[in-house]
Automatic annotation (TrEMBL):
Pfam families (UniProt xref): Acyl_transf_1
InterPro entries: Ac_transferase_dom_sf, Acyl_transferase_dom, Acyl_Trfase/lysoPLipase, Malonyl_CoA-ACP_transAc, Malonyl_CoA-ACP_transAc_FabD, Malonyl_transacylase_ACP-bd, Mitochondrial_malonyltrans
Enzyme class: transferase
Family the entry assigns: Belongs to the fabD family.
The enzyme's E.C. designation: 2.3.1.39
Catalytic activity, as annotated: holo-[ACP] + malonyl-CoA = malonyl-[ACP] + CoA
Keywords: Acyltransferase, Transferase
Full protein name: Malonyl CoA-acyl carrier protein transacylase
Length: 295
């Protein structure tokens, strides 16, 4: 059976995440403790018993979700046999580590640098995102182009759900126009800034050098990357796509469609929450989905 393993992004976090994994065995506990050392603070304290507010900071959220996903994949042992992998935004790093393309340490360092760079970009220019429900992708794209302020289609989550990203004025104008055009809802998101938009350019430049200096190996299976939803195994191409990802769109709808077309028979979500399973079902109701669990 061809199994696609999929890894969630920001928004899937919850207080208490990872505690069960930490208590599971010495190997999982050792990885969490190694992460505390690499990061220079006890992220496990925030994950297991912090406040929602503490966990919601980008610099905490991203490494926390990454750790939950990667340590869970590691704990699956021999049952983790991916035919293909993909991750939503931040989840792309979790997917690369789990597929053997990035080491645990390098993956965590990159995720931490990415989170800090994105936080800085958010603070430098207040910006936001909004979920547009009930309109086709093309209409959303056309309306974004008409707005003079910065606003772009950022996350193609599933048919009828596209997240836009940009300056506060740009997103507000686009939301008003999209509602007029028939969107069921235009919902501003509680996020730190305009992820996957041109406003992340400073973060992209900061992260580019770090990614280029990191060793990426050929993964054990193809990784379907966010920027164009296509499968890759070549390390240099994977790097280029990871760099482009910060300012490019997350093409999740197309990723799931491509995985299905390439023979994916089951989708297993590895990490906190079940958001991606829901999105897969919206693309294809008959798709088999489940959450990774430790027997």
């Amino acid at each position: 059976m061809k199994t696609a393993y999929i890894f969630p992004g920001q928004g899937a976090q919850f207080v208490g995440m990872g505690q069960e994994l930490y208590n599971l065995n010495e190997a999982s506990k050792a990885l969490f403790e190694q992460a505390n050392e690499i990061l220079g603070f006890r992220i496990t304290d925030i994950m297991f018993a912090g406040t929602d507010e503490d966990l919601k900071q980008t610099k905490v959220t991203q490494p926390a979700i990454f750790l939950h996903s990667v340590i869970l994949a590691n704990a699956l042992g021999d049952s983790f046999q991916p035919a293909m992998v993909a991750g939503h935004s931040l989840g792309e790093f979790s997917a690369l580590v789990s597929a053997g393309a990035l080491s645990f340490e390098d993956g965590l360092k990159l995720v931490s640098q990415r989170a800090n760079a994105m936080q800085k970009a958010c603070e430098a220019q207040p910006s936001t995102m909004a979920a547009i429900l009930g309109l086709d992708d093309e209409t959303v794209e056309k309306i974004c182009v008409q707005v003079e302020d910065v606003v772009v289609a950022a996350n193609y989550n599933c048919p009828g759900q596209l997240v836009i990203s940009g300056s506060i004025a740009g997103v507000d104008k686009a939301c008003a126009l999209l509602t007029e055009a028939g969107a069921k809802r235009a919902l501003k998101l509680n996020v730190g800034g305009a992820f996957h938009s041109p406003l992340m350019e400073p973060a992209k430049l900061e992260l580019q050098a770090a990614i280029e200096a990191t060793e990426i190996k050929t993964p054990v299976c193809p990784i379907y990357q966010n920027v164009d939803a296509k499968p890759y195994t070549d390390p240099e191409t994977i790097k280029a796509n990871l760099i482009a990802q910060l300012t490019g769109a997350v093409r999740w709808t197309q990723t799931v469609q491509h995985m299905l077309a390439d023979g994916a028979e089951a989708f297993v979500e590895v990490g906190p929450g079940n958001v991606l399973q829901g999105l897969v079902k919206k693309v294809d109701r008959s798709a088999q989905t489940s959450a990774a669990t430790i027997a």
